[in-house]
């Protein structure tokens, strides 16, 4: 409303000045209506931005100006009509005559690039009078500028009154400079509009990261102080904390195997602690029940056996066996701990053991051939591990007898010194003679069909007698002896690695395939003829035949087999066999 009032006030004042100038003329008429600069300057000036114009589109009027207007007392309906010169921009070269005009006009315009153009014309309607001449124009001393360009227009009444020279524009600085400045200012504003939010966002993210880092350091310092205040009786080597089984999520697994503190038992690692301290490296093995990864724990390489969730029973059973009192042995895979963790929203069951870079006996035999000393070391160390499992140790904190039930070359690892260690106790059975208790794990998993004994294949095994499981282990170990002897160099000859019954059954034999070959046909692996001339291989051949005998009661026990192998090794002084067992 204020803007409209100001506009009306200025218009009325302008008309008053116009009337005054018109009435003060001596002869009372004029072809060119001209205002004096003093009257124009006496007009009250209202800021143009009150009418909604921005700064770039504002009007700047300086110097003396003229206003080409119709007389306020003139009635256009009775107004005289004139003839005018008419020509087009930019050079006004071809002139024509415009008839029946109320007014004549001529103009000069300078564009943004500084080029000037001239034109002449006439107004033939009342609307054109308002559009062409009822505006500020240049009289030679001032200018009307808009958006860095200039123009001047002179209106008059009379025949051919717009003849003659065109209005003159003042000499000004090249408008392109202002336009360039405007362009640079626009680019600067655009860059600021883009960069400011990015900078603010970056500062905010940096602050958040610093706060998170500070919070993490405080949390780690608090945990370190808490660990430092733990009772030393509840700590394990390499700063791993241990706890009673009742505080663990594996309470049901460990409740019968908690150490008494005598040092004979296995301290239990607190759950959700071990997995956080291990960094997984590369996958070194895969099977139908899980994967084996090499990990880094306190700067030391470890093997991490990751069970699939569907094979939780094997992980639970193996953890129970490893936690048995007096279970540790140089020919049993060293146990570090078990843990249950989650990776990518998938539950993982971890079993952490010592890492042996040579891999399994299966891998070792595929890559390398053996000499007689290496063969005897592998055979004697492997049977020593089985003997430790089969033997019950009596005492207040004794060890039950354990049958493996899945002896094969893939479950026997090779240490760097050429000795074997027994691994994978997911199917193990325990027996305590004093109580007569036999613990057979409730596990749907079955052993490897290729290594199953005849009584298992024809389902005549007596599951209530622990000795039956020992004899099953000895049958399978007889096949392992055959695999190792086959890769031993004798008389310059060595066979390629092949699994047992490779020439009789497919690579993944079924239960029926093995039952036909082992039980019905009573077939056993073929022995090469050159073994007969080798005292070591021929001696082991006799032992392996007693191990895989069809009758379980005839098979050699682990202790008898170990003594026979040691005797065989000591019979040949040229072997220089060192007795380290």
UniProtKB/TrEMBL annotation:
Residue ranges of every copy of the Protein kinase domain listed in the record: 278-575
The protein's Enzyme Commission number: 2.7.11.30
Superkingdom in the source lineage: Eukaryota
Residue positions binding ATP: 305
Catalysed conversion reaction: L-seryl-[receptor-protein] + ATP = O-phospho-L-seryl-[receptor-protein] + ADP + H(+); L-threonyl-[receptor-protein] + ATP = O-phospho-L-threonyl-[receptor-protein] + ADP + H(+)
A GO CC term attached to the entry: BMP receptor complex
Catalytic class of the enzyme: transferase
GO MF assignments: ATP binding; metal ion binding; transmembrane receptor protein serine/threonine kinase activity
Chief subcellular location: membrane
SUPFAM superfamilies with a match to the protein in the record: Protein kinase-like (PK-like), Snake toxin-like
InterPro entries assigned to the protein according to its UniProt record, in alphabetical order: Activin_recp, GS_dom, Kinase-like_dom_sf, Prot_kinase_dom, Protein_kinase_ATP_BS, Ser-Thr/Tyr_kinase_cat_dom, Ser/Thr_kinase_AS, Snake_toxin-like_sf
Keywords recorded for this protein, A-Z: ATP-binding, Glycoprotein, Kinase, Magnesium, Membrane, Metal-binding, Nucleotide-binding, Receptor, Serine/threonine-protein kinase, Signal, Transferase, Transmembrane, Transmembrane helix
Membrane-related topology note: Single-pass type I membrane protein
CDD domains: TFP_LU_ECD_Sax
Biological process (GO), any one: response to stress
Signal peptide: 1-23
Localisation per UniProt entry: Membrane
Transmembrane segments: 187-212
Cofactors that this protein relies on: Mn(2+); Mg(2+)
Name under which the protein is recorded: receptor protein serine/threonine kinase
Species this protein is from: Daphnia sinensis
């Amino acid at each position: 409303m204020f803007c409209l009032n100001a506009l009306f006030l200025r218009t009325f004042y302008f008309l008053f000045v116009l009337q005054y100038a018109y009435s003060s003329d001596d002869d009372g008429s004029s072809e060119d209506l001209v205002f004096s600069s003093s009257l124009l300057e006496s007009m009250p000036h209202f800021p143009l931005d009150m009418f909604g114009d921005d700064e770039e589109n504002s009007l700047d009027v300086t110097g003396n100006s003229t206003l080409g207007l119709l007389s306020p007392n003139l009635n256009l309906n009775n107004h005289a009509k004139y003839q005018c010169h008419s020509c087009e921009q930019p050079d006004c070269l071809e002139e024509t005559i415009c008839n029946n005009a109320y007014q004549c006009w001529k103009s000069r315009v300078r564009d943004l690039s500084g080029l000037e153009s001239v034109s002449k014309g006439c107004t033939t309607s009342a609307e054109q009078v308002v559009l062409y001449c009822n505006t500020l124009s240049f009289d030679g001393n001032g200018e009307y500028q808009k958006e860095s360009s200039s123009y001047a227009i002179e209106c008059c009444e009379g025949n051919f009154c717009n003849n003659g020279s065109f209005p003159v524009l003042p000499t000004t600085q090249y408008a392109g400079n202002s336009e360039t400045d405007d362009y640079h200012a626009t680019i600067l504003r655009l860059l600021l509009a883009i960069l400011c939010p990015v900078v603010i966002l970056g500062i905010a993210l940096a602050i958040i990261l610093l706060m998170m880092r500070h919070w993490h350091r405080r949390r780690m310092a608090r945990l370190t102080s808490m660990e430092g205040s733990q009772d030393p009786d509840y700590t394990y080597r390499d700063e791993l904390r241990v706890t009673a089984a009742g505080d663990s999520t594996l309470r049901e697994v460990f409740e019968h195997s908690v150490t008494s503190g005598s040092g004979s038992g296995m301290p239990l690692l607190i759950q959700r602690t071990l997995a956080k301290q291990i960094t997984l490296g590369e996958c070194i093995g895969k099977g139908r029940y899980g994967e084996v990864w090499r990990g880094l724990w306190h700067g030391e390489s470890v093997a991490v056996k990751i069970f699939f969730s569907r094979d939780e029973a094997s992980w639970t059973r193996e953890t129970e066996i490893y936690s048995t009192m007096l279970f540790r042995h140089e020919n049993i895979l060293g146990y570090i701990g078990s843990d249950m963790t989650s990776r990518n929203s998938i539950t993982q069951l971890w079993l952490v053991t010592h890492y042996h870079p040579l891999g399994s006996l299966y891998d070792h035999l595929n890559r390398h051939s053996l000499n007689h000393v290496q063969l005897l070391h592998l055979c004697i160390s492997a049977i020593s591990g089985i003997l430790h499992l089969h033997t019950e140790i009596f005492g207040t904190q004794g060890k039950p007898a354990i049958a493996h039930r899945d002896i094969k070359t893939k479950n026997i690892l090779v240490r760097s010194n050429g000795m074997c260690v027994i691994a994978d106790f997911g199917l193990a059975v325990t027996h305590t003679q004093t109580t007569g208790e036999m613990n057979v794990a409730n596990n749907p998993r079955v052993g490897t069909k290729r290594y199953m004994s005849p009584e298992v294949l024809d389902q005549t095994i007596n599951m209530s007698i622990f000795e039956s499981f020992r004899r099953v282990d000895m049958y399978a170990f007889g096949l392992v002896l055959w695999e190792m002897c086959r890769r031993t160099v004798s008389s310059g000859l060595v066979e390629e690695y092949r699994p047992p019954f490779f020439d009789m059954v497919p690579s993944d034999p079924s239960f029926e395939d093995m039952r036909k070959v082992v039980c019905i046909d009573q077939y056993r692996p073929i022995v090469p003829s050159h073994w007969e001339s080798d005292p070591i291989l021929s001696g082991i051949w006799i032992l392996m035949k007693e191990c895989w005998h069809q009758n379980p009661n005839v098979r050699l026990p682990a202790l008898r087999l170990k003594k026979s192998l040691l005797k065989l090794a000591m019979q040949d002084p040229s072997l220089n066999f060192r007795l380290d067992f």
